[in-house]
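request received
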Amino acid sequence: MSPSNETFESILEAAKAGAEWAWASLFTELSGPVTGYLASRGAAEPDDVSSEVFLNIARSIHSFSGDRASFRSWVFVIAHRKLIDERRSRSRQPALAEFPEDTSSVSEGGNVENEALTNLITKEMQAAFAPLTEAQRDVLALRLIAGLTLDETAQVVGKRVGAVKALQRRALATLHNTLAFDSVTL
Amino acid sequence: MLRHGFSDQDVERLFCGEKPNNQALATLSPVLSAFQSVSWPSPSEERVIRFATKAAEVAQAAELEPTTGSPRRGSQSGWLPSLSRGLATGVASILVFSGMTAIAIASDDAAPGDALYGIDRALEAVGIGDGSAAERIAEARVLFDRGEVTAAIDHASEAVTDTGDDVDVPDSSPEEAKAAAALQAAADKVRANDQAQSQQVRDAVAAMLAEMAAMMQDPAIEGKDFGQKVAELAGTIGGNDNAGPPEGTPGPPEDPGPPESPPGKSGGNPGKPDNTPGQSNGGSSG
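response:
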C-alpha cells in the first residue's frame, strides 16, 4: 500500500487503531526529513532523536486530528522542541562544540554513499549558515530541509508570520553578502 | 551590500525553486537548491518495521489511558488545573463555537512537556490560540505553578523574542538580547545554587511573570521597554540569596522536564556565575 493510494485520513485512523502498516507509512514518509532537519541543526544523535519524536507522536496520536499538513507541522514542532531542549542542556556544558564534528550517526543499514553525501552537504550548509543567528538557521532549515511553508514554519518556531518573514529576509541578505565574497561551488 | 530591497513574494519564489526578480536573490538559487535537493536517507526497511511494531503497541496502549501525562511527571494533578484554566478563557468558547472539541480545549494552556503541547502549537498556526508572547508567559506561569521554576524562566525567555508586529522586525534588538541573556543567567543561577525551593526566589519569579503578563496587556509598552524591564526583573532573581540555606516552605520538587544539570553543582559562590551562554540572542524557541 503506497501512501498515494491511501488518504491521510485513513492512515491516521489506522495508526490510531494500532495498525503497523500505518505507522510504517508515516515513518517512511517523514523520518528522512525529520532526521535531516535535526542533523542540519546540529543535533548530536539525529537518528535517536528522530525515533523519540515519532514515539512521542505514537503516544499522543489519539489527541491529534487534522490533515496531512497539520500532522507534518506537529511532527516538526516536536522535533524542534527536542532540538531546543538539547541546545539548552548543551549550553550548560560549554566545552561541547556547537556543531558535532561527526554527523554520521549510525543510520543502520543506510546507503553509504547517501550518508557521505549527507555529511558533505551538512558541513557545507553549516559553513554557509555560520554567519546566521540560530533563529535564522532554524527558519532556513525548516523551509529548505523540512520543506515547510511560511505558515507551518511560524507554527513550529512559535513566532508570528511577520517575524518569520523578517528572519528569512535577513538570513538571505546575510547569505548573499557573505557568499558573494566566497566562490562557493556546489 | 544587499539591503532589504526584495519582496516577500520574491523570497517565496526563491523557496519554491522559481526565479526571483531580484538579481541578488537569484544568485542564491543554486546554493539553496543544493541544500533543498539533498535526499536525506530514508530509514532502512528493518528500521521501519522495528519502529512500526513499537509505535503500534504504544498507540494501542495510549488508547487505554486517556488521561496520561508523561509518566515521569512528579504530579499528575498539574494537568487538571491547566484544563480548568483553559476552560475559563474566551478561547474555549470560540473553539466550541467552531466545532473543535476537547482536543483543542484540553491542549490550550498545555505547557512544554505535556503530551498536548505539540498540538497546542499546531492549533496556534491555524488561528486557534494566540501563539503570541502572551501565551508563552501564560505557559511559563503554568510551569511555575507546577514548581518547575527554572523551566518557567527558560520558557519566559521565548516571550521576550516575540514582541514584534508584522513588520520588518529585528530578530534581536539589543534590549531583547539583554533580556534574554538576563533570563538565561537567572535560570542558570537558580539551577546552579539549588534555589528553586527558596521562597524569595519563587516570589521574584512570580513577580516577574506577573509583570510580563501585565505589560503584554498594555498597548502603550513598546518592545524595547518590555525587554528593558524584563532584564531588570530577571536580574533580581536569586540576587542576595547565596548566604544560607533556602528559606521559607520548599515548593514541590522540580520535575525533570528538559534535561538539566543536578542542583548544587557549583556551590554557593556569590556574584554572577561565570557562564557564557552559547547563544544569547534569544533566537531559540519552539
